[in-house]
Amino acid sequence: MSSWDRATAIKLGLSALALATIAASPLAGASNLGRPATPAEIAAWDIDVRPDFAGLPAGSGSVEQGMEVWESKCESCHGTFGESNEVFTPLAGGTTRADQDSGRVKSLVGPNVPQRTTLMKLSTVSTLFDYIRRAMPWNAPKSLSDDEVYAVTAYVLYLNDVVSDDFVLDQDSIREVQNRLPNRNGMTRDHGLWEVAGKADTHNTACMKNCAADVEISSSLPEYARDSHGNLADQNRSFGPVRGTTTAASAAPAATTAPTQPAGTSRLAMAEEYGCTGCHAMDDTIVGPGFRQVAQRYADKAGSLDQVAAKIRAGGSGAWGSMPMPAQEQLNEEQARELAEWILSGAN
Amino acid sequence: MGNPMRIRAKLDGEVVDAKVLMNHAMETGQRKDASGALVPAHYITKVIASCNGKTVLEADWGPSVSKNPLLGFRFRGAAAGDTLSVTWTDSMNDTRTDEAVIG
Q1: Probe site for chain B from A80, A112, A323 (most B CB atoms < 10 A)
Q2: Do A325 and A279 contact (CB within 8 A), yes or no?
Q3: Which residues lie below 8 Å from residue A101, measured CB to CB, with a gap of 6+?
Q4: Which of A98, A167, B1, B80 has the fewest CB atoms within 10 Å of its CB?
Q5: How far is B39 from chain A (nearest CA, A)?
Q6: How many pairs of residues across A and B have Cβ atoms under 8 Å apart?
Q7: Would you call A37 helix, strand, or coil by DSSP?
Q8: For the segment A57-76, what is each residue's pLDDT rounded down to a tens digit?
Q9: pTM: predicted TM-score of the whole model, two decimal places
Q10: Is 0.90 exceeded by the ipTM?
Q11: In B, which residues are within 8 Å of A80 by CB distance?
């Protein structure tokens, strides 16, 4: 879709919405709600790369450059060879040279490779490129340049023996790679879900009797069950807009809206802003230890403030398991110290 | 003959940080296939890593090591540009050697 089409589609969408609003309520002037999206807004949103490579930006990156980016930004979670199964399932492995010829991954059938890797399932290389470009690295999505995305994509393909170690991926050679992808013929639309009238995958039969006149859609947690699994709010990553509800026994439902101390809130916001909460929760281990676990172990030790502050900036591994923490150079020393103080004081 | 290994060796100060991903079935000899027959044991029994003619790591392995094992180790005494060579031998007397330049 060209950007003009998109702009029109968005405007049409908005006016359809406005019409619906008018139909539903007598509110006058609702058609003035919103404004057409600006070309810059559309360009920022319109980054998808499609299987036919529409939307693919120009650029290039070699396997060697990809290895450099990989080892600084990707290795800590995905492993040196994309083999790690600690945070995510493995990216590479499970395919053979014969799969590249046939375009169907043989080990998807049968018990030999019980765990599916990303490259076993991937049928369009554009998806790999698009995903890395919009979502990776996890703590700083969209921070890679187009050339870096090409390079990392090339490296992932190299790890799976799809390309050789001297390969350079660019907007032309990516088309050749598509023809070598192990599971390129593995997707089928030859089943019911692709057709409106197709055979469903359940034996669902329409029951249009005794229908409820009014349906109230709701979701709630009974009072007696609130504490069954501890405080759900503390077990969730506080990353992005979704939060767990507070279910601690001591916290009455009203307490969920009670404000915490302003100082703590701002530090928590800081931890969110700098990506800490992508891997660290308040109490429990997710990828790294919970903030309060760190406080419990180190708060009373001499010199722990300096140590934790230094560790935040430099990263490291070993103290809490083998999963390494990448260096957080976006923080200056003062900010790291501020966060360390907050963590060691119990992250309240 | 076996399948090729992936080796990455990086010099960090004086210490070389080496990672090796071996491509091996590592059958324990206790697993049964779909027809109920035992899959014969086939696992790596010996791993030797050497650099500049010196053995830097020697390991006796058994059937409890995972399929496609990842081996990480560190050693001193090598310079950038030296070659790290890793050899495995398995229970069917198959062997494979791969090399990587320390970077």
Answers
A1: A80
A2: yes
A3: none
A4: B1
A5: 12
A6: 17
A7: coil
A8: 999 999 999 999 998 889 88
A9: 0.67
A10: no
A11: 8, 19, 21, 70
